[in-house]
Design a protein that fits this description.
Elements lengths: L1 H31 L17 H5 L6 H13 L6 H10 L1 H4 L5 H8 L12 H5 L4 H16 L6 H11 L4 H17 L14 H12 L7 E6 L11 E6 L1 H8 L7 E11 L2 E10 L40 E2 L2 E9 L4 H13 L10 E3 L11 H20 L1
Parallel strand pairs: 3-7
Antiparallel strand pairs: 1-2, 2-6, 3-4, 4-6, 5-6
């Protein structure tokens, strides 16, 4: 009987314990599902997406920096690599591909101290590889656009990847080579290059004519000619040696105007033309056959062969494929402007050009400079002149 009473009391105590636990669980459940906020976390919102860069109406530097600032203001932001890669693709559209401050802001998108390796294994096995490769691509973008980093970028990279990170090593290589090649060109060009075609033509013709230090670069105005149709400028380059070549050129051999050829000055280009003749026949001694041993000579006993022929020394303008007589760039790059160029050269120390046939060739990436019918007529005139000279 006592055992039965003890069992009943135990069952009652267990039932009371279960009721108390149920009440406490209901209380906790009510407190958990209450309207009061238990956490102060804001929901993750994609402030800047891939389409955000495309949907911007005014694409400039300030807009680009504002988008970076909006992304950095987000407290629980994510997708750093995707955001930086998207921003790199749109840097050219916003015109910030050559701005050093923009590259610094992009590096600051990554949080500092999170990706620093803690040991040698992590540093050698590229700790956080996607993030490091993302910044390496950013540094490659800087190198492609000729942007030299400064010491502040090193501090930003060390804070994010440590002194043994791959981006820091990439930065050190850039700082060693880029300053060496920055001012190595003998033809300095302002950065950015001018957009005015006239200034570009001056820089281009001076660069082309720098092979001869006596070359003179002159600017002509076509309106000074009465027979000129167009009103434009002509930047021409010619040296005294080239004027002598024109004076000694036979009248029955034509001269060709070839072009236009394109020359690049940083990211700007200009079209230029050349005045060229066929290569001159050299009067040098015929080359001997090195395998012929019939006239074998011993250098210590036989006298070396000498020649009494006098050979004129070639100038820098006489190349294997032809002789360059002048070079020029015009404002319109048209046939009329080139004809005005020839007339102006006649008045400027080349009077023999008036009696030499001049042909326009079709060796141009821009298309034919002169119709083929006019070329055929000019060729017939040259053939008739050659026949008359041969008969006389």
């Amino acid at each position: 009987m006592n055992n039965v009473l003890r069992t009943c009391r135990g069952i009652v105590s267990v039932s009371r314990y279960i009721k108390v636990n149920r009440q406490s669980a209901q209380f906790v459940e009510r407190e958990f599902h209450c309207t009061n906020s238990c956490f102060d976390k804001n929901p993750k919102v994609e402030v800047i997406s891939v389409d955000s860069f495309n949907n911007v109406q005014e694409k400039n530097k300030q807009t680009f920096l504002d988008m970076l600032k909006m992304y950095r203001m987000e407290k629980f932001r994510s997708g750093h690599v995707e955001f930086i890669n998207t921003a790199i693709k749109h840097m050219d559209e916003f015109g910030v591909n050559e701005d050093l401050e923009t590259y610094k802001r992009l590096i600051q998108v990554l949080p500092a101290g999170k990706f620093v390796p803690q040991n040698y294994l992590q540093s050698e096995f590229m700790h956080y590889p996607k993030h490091q490769q993302c910044i390496v691509d950013l540094l490659q973008k800087m190198e492609d656009n000729g942007v030299i980093p400064d010491w502040e970028i090193e501090d930003l990279l060390v804070k994010r990847f440590g002194t043994r990170g791959i981006p820091v090593r990439r930065y050190w290589r850039m700082m060693y080579w880029m300053p060496k090649f920055n001012n190595l060109s003998p033809w300095p060009i302002p950065k950015p290059a001018p957009n005015d075609p006239y200034e570009l033509a001056l820089l281009a013709i001076k660069r082309i004519c720098s092979i001869d230090i006596e070359s003179e670069v002159k600017v002509y105005e076509t309106k000074l000619l009465e027979e000129s149709i167009e009103d434009t400028w002509i930047v021409s380059g010619q040296s005294p040696d080239q004027k002598k070549l024109v004076a000694n050129h036979p009248e029955n051999v034509p001269i060709y105007i070839e072009g236009g050829f394109r020359i690049w000055l940083r990211k700007q280009s200009i079209i230029y033309f050349i005045l060229r003749t066929e290569p001159t026949q050299s009067k040098e001694n015929e080359k001997e056959d090195e395998d012929d041993v019939s006239n074998f000579q011993v250098p210590f006993f036989d006298k070396p062969k000498t020649s009494n022929k006098i050979v004129r020394k070639k100038t820098l303008h006489e190349q294997e494929d032809g002789t360059i007589l002048a070079v020029a760039a015009t404002g319109t790059s048209s046939k009329n402007s080139l004809l005005s160029w020839i007339r102006l050269l006649e008045k400027d120390g080349n009077p023999k050009l008036s009696s030499i046939p001049i042909l326009f060739t079709s060796k141009s990436p821009l298309g034919n400079v002169e119709p083929l019918v006019e070329l055929d007529e000019s060729k017939k005139q040259v053939e008739e002149l050659e026949k008359k000279v041969s008969i006389e």
